[in-house]
Write a structure and sequence with these properties.
By secondary structure, the protein is of the alpha/beta class. It has 2 domains: 2-191 and 304-378, Alpha/Beta hydrolase fold, catalytic domain (Rossmann fold), CATH 3.40.50.1820; 195-296, Rna Polymerase Sigma Factor, Chain: A. It is built from 10 helices and 11 strands. Strand 8, helix 2 and strand 9 form a beta-alpha-beta unit. 49% of the residues are buried.
């Protein structure tokens, strides 16, 4: 039963074409690791128009600290305004003159969907670490409820990068009858031990901060230093040695306006790359919740597309849709050889799979930078 639907255009599946955040709330969601989340709110945005058959929808899935604002109608050519802006809109790979494009914020996040900073209806206080463990599969199940509410009968595509790529893969395996094509960008069937190790160091940086208070911090008074350090480490994994040398080398910082998370004085000056990391850490602190970082990063670690199936092959055999896998030459977090291997496995079990590799020095983040190569890859 639907509890509420906010900002929806009454009596229509047509949503505003101008940028507007919608929310949809439903009763409950049973969770993969036990228990349930109730009620559940999803924040989402849409562009374009759903056709009468309900089969021209594209679901865009975001990365770890991303949100539903994948496209900005008012500033469609500015990649800083929306995270996949250059790929969405008339005449672009996700063409809004033909497709109804949806992007929803995942559960566990802090951009309007139910997450640790949401109020627990049982206590009237933020969930904090009482928020239940959520997985990629839970995120996808919540998205399925949303698209049914919107009148979508079949998805023409599901596309996303990084943790969004995990969601796209899960969609194809969990709901093969609902998806015509999956686009998995810079993601694999499961994280490596090395990637999990980096994630855990990031989480520990948050939890060791005295202001974390076991997750029971007041809004605006959380573990800023810990979250900043977590982001700094994450940004290193999103880059490559090649890209960092090109951008920073050993240059000294010319502008040291951003303090280090420790607020300590620079020891022997500051390198440009250090200043960049301090800036990235401070920027995330201003827009993201530390507990959400813990939950979503853990969901990324826990994901294994084969979980619940007899084998990886059995899981991949469920894919009926076309599958496009996009790797990045310099990706440290999801090495391209692993992405290519997954594409090969899909073909080996009889699936329709294509692999494309971005030739970029920008590491994992290339799917948010290489607009020309991404456009070419998505139009294959």
């Amino acid at each position: 039963m639907v509890i509420q639907s906010e900002q929806r255009v009454a009596g229509s599946k047509q949503f505003a074409s101008a940028d507007q955040l919608f929310t949809y709330t439903f009763d409950s969601l049973p969770l993969e690791r036990g228990g349930q989340l109730a009620p559940v709110t999803l924040a989402f945005e849409t562009w374009g128009t759903l056709n009468a058959e309900g089969n021209n929808a594209i679901l865009i899935t975001h990365a770890l600290t991303g949100n539903s604002h994948a496209h900005d109608v008012q500033h469609p050519d500015d990649p800083k305004r929306a995270w996949w802006n250059p790929l969405i809109g008339p005449g672009r790979p996700f063409d809004t003159t033909h497709y109804f494009v949806i992007c929803s914020n995942v559960i566990g996040s802090c951009y309007g969907s139910t997450g640790p900073s949401s109020l627990d209806p049982l206590t009237g206080e933020p969930y904090g670490m009482r928020f239940p463990l959520v997985t990629i599969r839970d995120m996808v199940r919540a998205q399925r409820v949303l698209i049914e509410h919107l009148g979508v009968r079949q998805l023409a595509m599901v596309a996303g990068g990084s943790i969004g790529g995990q969601q796209a893969l899960e969609w194809g395996v969990a709901y093969p009858e609902l998806v015509q094509k999956v686009i998995v960008v810079a993601a694999t069937a499961a994280l490596t031990a090395q990637a999990i190790a980096f994630s855990e160091v990031e989480r520990q940086a948050i939890m060791v901060d005295p202001l974390w208070q076991r997750g029971n911090y007041d809004p605006g008074h959380g573990p800023e230093a810990g979250l900043s350090v977590a982001r700094m480490l994450a940004m290193i994994t999103y880059q490559s040695e090649e890209g960092m040398e090109m951008r920073f080398a050993r240059r000294h910082a010319s502008n040291r306006a951003v303090p280090a998370p420790s607020r300590a004085a620079d020891l022997g000056g500051r390198f440009d790359v250090e200043d960049y990391l301090y800036y990235q850490g401070e920027s995330l602190v201003k827009r993201f919740d530390a507990n959400s970082y813990l939950y979503i990063s853990r969901a990324m670690d826990l994901y294994d597309v084969s979980e619940g199936y007899p084998s990886l092959e059995a899981a991949l055999r469920r894919l009926r849709s076309k599958a496009l896998f996009i790797g990045i030459r310099s990706d440290f977090l999801f090495p391209p050889a692993h992405v290519r291997w997954l594409a090969d496995q899909v073909r080996l079990v009889g699936g329709d799979s294509t692999y494309v590799e971005l030739d970029s020095p920008h590491g994992h983040d290339a799917f948010l930078k290489e607009w020309g190569q991404m456009t070419n890859a998505l139009t294959i």
